[in-house]
Amino acid sequence: MSNLLLKEKLIERLPSIPKVVHEVWKIIEQKNAEPAKVSEVISKDISLSAKVLKLVNSPFYGFPNRISSIKHAVILLGLDAIRGLLISTVVFGDINEEIKDMWDHACDCATIAGIIAKVLDIKESDELTVAGLLHDMGKVILKNYFPELEAKIKTLQKIENIPDSEAEKKVIGISHDTINKWITEKWHFPPILTEAIVFHHNISGAGKYRLFSAVIGLADFLSYLYRLSPDKLSLPNMDEKICGILGLNPKVMDQIFSEMDKTLYPINWDEF
Amino acid sequence: MPTITIPLQKAEPGMVLAEDIYTANGKMILCKKGTELTEDIIYRMENMGIESIVIEEDMDEEERKKLLQEKLELIEKAFINKKGDCLQMIKDALKAFWNKKFTKNE
After folding, report:
1. Which of the residues A3, A75, A92, A182 has an alpha carbon 20 to 30 A from that of A58?
2. Which chain A residue's Cα is nearest to B10?
3. Nearest by CB to B4, which of A229, A243, A266?
């Protein structure tokens, strides 16, 4: 399958955006969007509201008190982050056994992205958390809509013990970064999320939001590193420039690891 | 000493607190580090709205050493084909972190 054909097929198979989500996006994309309006629309859909509240209250945000209203959630997180959360409900749909591993990794990565932001004093930690949740959405879409290709990629990756991106290139000619890019274009992601997600393996490709791509690249790498086990030994590619861009040193890394360990060590994402 | 954060629902009498527990406003210490939990203390924390606590992980010296060794070996294996100063620094920092966590009296 050529890239163009793959792109066409993939976009064709993307899940349709629920009406409420669409409505919210339209409001957010207007200048001077009003948070009150956004929460009003989300609140109309009970199941969507429940999903959003569940995400807002999950450990990756680490708010000290339970958030029980959508209004409060929208104000706390801001519109870009809320938009990202809505997208994640569309991408992941209902979490089933098939995509459980991907969901766990997405949650780890979201948590770590938020931790990195806090340790490095980057104020957009909520946006970064959402970007962490969505950084591999291309893989999720492949798995859900092209399971036969995804299975081939997984097999090759296991046999040759190579990073996912390399296996993807060998099987379908492109990596999930490219698929991420197609989805962000199709669904009009805000630029901060787009860059953070699309360029997390290739920081040089990013523009204004290079810092955010670097955070997600690091968060992705650290989530695999933290969960190393005899049958999960492969680490993704990480851009060497990340250390310079984020100003990492052993002391900062120690802080990041101890925060990660506090939050991630006991977590079983099933409970959330 | 390795510590572990658990949701309060999983707290059991006999567990030992590894960090002070503060009241919801963060101003007062409710329960000191090193306290052994009892039914009563757990009940009080529930009433105070505490959601999670950090406890000491019950693990003997040998177990700890073994776990540390496993972690370090996995890191070495995973980094076999990885090059570069940035990655090397991250690798060393994680090894140092596990060393610290799984070494006694830390």
Report:
1. A182
2. A266
3. A266
Domain hosting residue B70, numbered range: 61-101
User: Chain A contacts of B92, Cβ < 8 Å?
Assistant: 250
Residue B106 has pLDDT above 50, yes or no: no
**Contact at CB, B78 and A234, closer than 8 angstroms:** yes
| Structural domain total, chain B | 2
- Domain contains B106: no
Q: Domain check: are B47 and B79 in the same one?
A: no
DSSP assignments along chain B, one per residue: --EEEEEGGG--TT-BBSS-EE-TTSSSEEE-TTPBP-HHHHHHHHHTT--EEEEE----HHHHHHHHHHHHHHHHHHTTT--SHHHHHHHHHHHHHHHHHTSTT-
Please, which residues 75-94 of chain B have a Cβ atom closer than 8 Å to chain A?
75, 77-79, 82, 84-87, 89-90, 92-94
Beta-carbon separation of A265 and B94 below 8 A: no
Domains of chain A by residue range: 3-271
Q: What's the average model confidence in pLDDT over B44-50?
A: 83
Q: Give me the residue from B75, B78, B92 closest to A250, CB to CB.
A: B92
Q: Does B22 touch chain A (CB under 8 A)?
A: no
Partner-chain contact B78 A225, CB within 8 Å: yes
Q: Please indicate, yes or no, whether the overall pTM of this predicted structure exceeds 0.80.
A: yes
What superfamily in CATH does domain A3-271 come from? Hypothetical protein af1432 (1.10.3210.10)
B84 shares a domain with B52: no
Asked whether the ipTM of the predicted complex exceeds the cut of 0.90, the reply is: no
Residues B7 and B49 in one domain: yes
Per DSSP, the three-state class of A180 is: helix
Token reading at A190: 């805000």
- Tracing tokens 């990013």 back to the chain, one arrives at A206
pLDDT one-digit tens code per residue, A103-120? 999 999 999 999 999 999
